[in-house]
Specification:
single chain; alpha+beta; Arc Repressor Mutant, subunit A; 2 domains; three-stranded antiparallel beta sheet; 10 helices; globular; HTH_AraC; sequence-specific DNA binding; transcription regulation; Homeodomain-like_sf; transcription
C-alpha cells in the first residue's frame, strides 16, 4: 500500500508520550506481496478490500488488522482507505495482538463503521487520538487498555532532552541515564513503565516520524536521513522497509494524509 503524501509537520512539538503513529486517509492502491514489522490497520471506507496472506486465496473484508512481519497483499484500488501503522511492542500493539488468532483479523462492516466514524487523521493528532486507539482495542475484542500511566519525573526530563537533542547526537541509554542521574537499568525500567514501550523502539519510531516529515517537505533523502538521526539514507530506507513495508520515496506523490503522533491524553 502506498502512503499518500504527508503535509509539513512541526519539529517544534515535543516527542509524544506514546510512539508516533503513521496514518493516512485517501485513495487506496494495490500492493504486491510484502511484510513489515509495524502492525497495520486498514479500513475500506467506501467498500470492501481484497486481502491475501502469503499464497492463501484472496478474501474480501471491510477492514483488516495485519500482524507484524506477515507476508500479505492488499488490493484497495478504487477505494478510499484509512491506513494506520503502529508499533507492535507498544501497549496498544500488545493489546491488539490478543485480537489476532491468525496472521490477520478481518473487520466486519459494523466494526469498520464504528472505527471510521470521525477518524480524520488531523483530529487523531490531538487528545481524540488516545480515545480512538482505545476504541480500536475494545471494538476488536482485545479487552481494554489499562488506565493512563503515571509518568516518572526523570522520564519527563528524558522526553524533553530528546526534544532538544540535535539530530545524530548521542541518545543512548547510558548517556540519557547520566543526564537525568539514574542508572541505565533504572531508567530502562522507569521509561518502559511510564511510556509502555522500551526506549530503543520509541527512538526508532521518533526517527521514522521526523524522517517522514522531512521527506514530504521536499528535503532530499540523504538530508532527511541526517535530519532524523539516521546514519545515512540506506539506513533510513532499510528501517522504512522493515517497519512499514515501503520505501521513503513512497511518501511522495499522492494526496491528503497526516503524520499522526498519538500523544496520549497528556502533554509533556
Amino acid at each position: 500500500m502506498r502512503l499518500p503524501d504527508v503535509p509539513p509537520f512541526s519539529f517544534e512539538r515535543p516527542p509524544p508520550l506514546w510512539p508516533p503513529l503513521l496514518a493516512s486517509r485517501g485513495p487506496g492502491t494495490a500492493s504486491t506481496g510484502h511484510s513489515h514489522h509495524a502492525m497495520h490497520l486498514v479500513l475500506g471506507l467506501d467498500g470492501p478490500l481484497r486481502v491475501r496472506v502469503a499464497d492463501a486465496p484472496w478474501v474480501h473484508l471491510a477492514g483488516v488488522l495485519t500482524a507484524p512481519d506477515v507476508p500479505h497483499c492488499l488490493d484497495a484500488e478504487g477505494r478510499e482507505v484509512l491506513l494506520v501503522f503502529l508499533d507492535p511492542e507498544s501497549e496498544v500493539g500488545a493489546s491488539l495482538a490478543a485480537a489476532l488468532t491468525g496472521p490477520i483479523r478481518g473487520l466486519s462492516a459494523a466494526e469498520r463503521d464504528t472505527l471510521a466514524r470521525e477518524a480524520d487523521p488531523s483530529r487523531l493528532m490531538g487528545p481524540e487520538g488516545a480515545a480512538w486507539t482505545r476504541r480500536v482495542v475494545e471494538v476488536l475484542g482485545a479487552g481494554a487498555l489499562p488506565p493512563s500511566r503515571s509518568i516518572h519525573p526523570r522520564v519527563r526530563r528524558v522526553l524533553r532532552l530528546l526534544h532538544e537533542l540535535p539530530p545524530g547526537q548521542d541518545a543512548s541509554l547510558a548517556t540519557l541515564a547520566a543526564q537525568v542521574r539514574l542508572s541505565p537499568g533504572r531508567l530502562m525500567h522507569a521509561f518502559t513503565e511510564s511510556i509502555g514501550l522500551p526506549l530503543r523502539p520509541y527512538l526508532a519510531w521518533l526517527r521514522l516520524q521526523r524522517a517522514a516529515a522531512a521527506i514530504v517537505s521536499g528535503m532530499p533523502l540523504g538530508d532527511a536521513a541526517q535530519a532524523a538521526g539516521f546514519a545515512d539514507s540506506a539506513h533510513m530506507s532499510r528501517t522504512f522497509r522493515r517497519m512499514l513495508g515501503m520505501s521513503p520515496s513512497a511518501l511522495r506523490g499522492a494526496h491528503r494524509s497526516q503524520l499522526v503522533q498519538d500523544r496520549g491524553a497528556r502533554r509533556v
